[in-house]
Design brief:
Elements lengths: L12 H4 L30 E12 L1 E4 L3 E4 L18 H11 L11 E4 L2 E13 L4 E14 L2 E4 L8 E3 L8 H28 L8 H5 L1 H21 L10 E3 L4 H18 L42 E6 L2 E11 L5 H6 L4 E12 L21 E11 L4 E12 L2 E7 L13 E8 L3 E12 L3 E12 L2 E4 L13 E3 L2 E13 L1 H5 L7 E15 L2 E2 L2 E11 L5
Antiparallel strand pairs: 1-5, 1-24, 2-3, 2-23, 4-7, 5-6, 6-10, 6-11, 8-9, 11-12, 12-13, 13-14, 14-17, 15-16, 16-19, 17-18, 18-21, 19-20, 21-22, 22-24
Helix pairs in contact: 2-5, 3-5, 5-6
């Protein structure tokens, strides 16, 4: 049987993938690259131009001790109230006092959360072979990041027991005037009864039968009126400003209970002949209920959340730029491109890369709750080493170790530092903080298999470790200590990738193709994580690599 006929021994089925068999003699040398880094040198005087796209997406995070959890899971609640917005505690306490219901729980309705982050990166990379062993590389990424999370409040519009305070804003002048009138009437009743109590202390005073029959009750009514007035001002506001951002809804049993409390005051003062509280007097209830699409309104100053927006954020621009130099430490093929593409021999190759990352991306936007940065925005030292081991004419493997050492800088942060469950709480301040990012370490092993002259399959296993990140506001430039330093714990993440490569390098060296180029598609899926919170990121990458100055046989 001729040597180029197909051969399919069962013991080799795993090597050839899915029991497919290919003419092994057609795949020579290291003609097809694959997933991840390798130690293949750039030809002297030649360029490698790389363009493509990287798409990252995640809807879950690895949570310490809990495995995978939905992103923004901590915001989902059956009743949005003081559980996530403690700044509404005074309003809840005031309504409890006005209604006599000590177990009342303020609610804007159920809050549904569905977190999702998408990121698209278009890296442009240029490699230049200074010599047979030394090459330079520049990577300039254009990054677009979007948070497309959805927060849906009170979907059916019927589950809230409070609504928007009508006294808010410039349109609330009429409501503020009505609230001020009620408070004024209560003040007048209190003043009148206090004066009567003082007058009736004189034994010769007349018309004091009601007060003298129950002097303690009269004094208790004055105190009760004062407390009711205070609660009304806290919840509804006065003539100058609105009180809480939310109040009971018009026509609800809750508002009816408040009106009943005011009515009881009117009746009790009337027993002493004081009629300053009008029969129709009542605080102004809510006529607008927070419903779907209104979650953005709670970022206003009224709720004191401290963010300019919640969700649906987009950033785009140049990410962090890398400049590196790579030196070929050892190469069995002596950096001979033709030999490494065509030779069927076993081989070994290893390089060392050092470089610098310019933190051009900028840091997080502190005023945006769901901001997705387009880079870390920190200058960093880069070190990488890759070793290739060639087993035969169609199988080889790369092992890579990477280290990134970020340098300290200053960024704007929100204090106190928040997690998901405290995202809507207040108060907050945006201050300057000293940021120290932990060292990033990676190890990746990538087996590769050539299928003929043009195609290749590859895979990789990646372990990535982030050191602890520290954000220290105690070293803020213009203030004293604001909070304890916040530390993001160290994290470890593992992922697997598979890829398919199309390459014309072998054919070009033989003079059968016009252009030396490679196209690589890679899909990466997360496997697990430990330590702190880590996004469950799935990635797809498509790369086009074009060579100039590549030699022919």
């Amino acid at each position: 049987m001729p040597q180029r006929m197909l051969r399919c021994p069962l013991g080799w089925a795993w090597r050839l993938g899915a029991a497919l068999c290919f003419p092994l003699a057609a795949a020579q040398g290291q003609s097809v690259s694959g997933v991840g880094d390798d130690a293949i040198p750039i030809p002297r005087g030649g360029f490698r131009i790389q363009v493509g796209g990287l798409w990252n997406d995640y809807r879950e995070v690895y949570s310490p001790g809990a495995g995978k959890q939905a992103l923004l899971r901590g915001l989902a609640t059956e009743n949005l109230g003081v559980n996530l917005m403690p700044q509404l505690s005074d309003a809840q306490a005031g309504i409890r006092a006005l209604t006599g219901n000590s177990s009342f729980a303020l609610s804007l309705g159920p809050l549904e959360s569905a977190g999702e982050v998408r990121q698209s990166i278009a890296p442009f990379a240029l490699d230049y072979g200074v010599s047979r062993r030394l090459s330079l590389r520049a990577v300039v990424p254009y990054v677009e990041s979007r948070d497309v999370s959805q927060l849906i409040l009170n979907r059916n519009g019927t589950a809230a027991n409070v609504g928007r305070n009508p006294a808010l804003g410039t349109a609330g002048q009429q409501a503020r005037a009505a609230n001020a009138a009620l408070l004024g009437q209560i003040d007048a009743a209190r003043t009148a009864l206090t004066a009567e109590i003082s007058r009736c202390a004189n034994v010769s005073a007349t018309g004091c039968d009601a007060i003298r029959a129950n002097p303690a009750g009269a004094q208790t009514l004055v105190t009760r009126a004062s407390q009711t007035r205070s609660s009304l001002a806290t919840v509804y506001g006065d003539g100058d400003a609105a009180g809480a951002p939310v109040v009971p809804i018009s026509g609800s049993s809750l508002h009816a209970a408040v009106v009943s409390t005011v009515g009881a005051l009117r009746t009790d003062f009337g027993a002493y002949g004081i009629t300053s509280i009008a029969a129709a007097a009542q605080p102004q209830p809510a006529v607008t209920i927070f419903g779907p699409g209104s979650i953005g309104s709670i970022t206003s100053d009224t709720f004191n959340v401290g963010y300019a927006r919640l969700g649906d954020t987009r950033r785009a621009g140049i990410g962090d730029i890398d400049l590196t130099a790579t030196y070929l430490l050892f190469d069995s093929f002596n950096a001979d491109q033709v030999k490494r593409v065509l030779s069927p021999a076993r081989g070994l190759r290893s390089n060392l890369t050092v470089g610098w990352r310019f933190g051009t991306a900028g840091a997080d936007r502190a005023e945006d709750a769901f901001d997705v940065p387009i880079g870390e925005g920190a200058n960093a030292l880069l070190v990488r080493s890759t070793t290739d081991v060639l087993f035969n004419r169609w199988a080889w493997m790369s092992a890579t170790v990477r280290a990134v050492k970020p340098f300290g800088d200053r960024i704007a942060v929100v204090v106190p530092f928040r997690d998901e469950t405290s995202l809507l709480s207040s108060p907050v301040d945006i201050v300057s903080a000293a940021r120290t990012l932990g060292t990033r370490l990676e190890f990746e092993v990538a087996p590769r298999m050539a299928i003929g002259q043009f195609f290749g399959l590859s895979a990789s296993y990646l372990v990535r470790h982030w050191g602890a990140d520290v954000f220290d506001t105690e070293r803020a430039e213009s203030s004293a200590s604001l909070t304890e330093p916040f530390t993001t714990p160290s994290r470890t993440f593992s992922a697997a990738a598979v890829g398919v490569t199309f390459s014309t390098l072998n054919s070009y060296v033989r003079g059968r193709s016009r252009f030396p180029a490679e196209v690589v598609y890679t899909h990466t899926t997360p496997l697990g994580a430990s330590g702190g919170f880590v996004p469950v990121v799935s990635s797809d990458r498509l790369e086009l690599r074009i060579y100039t100055g590549f030699p022919r046989r």
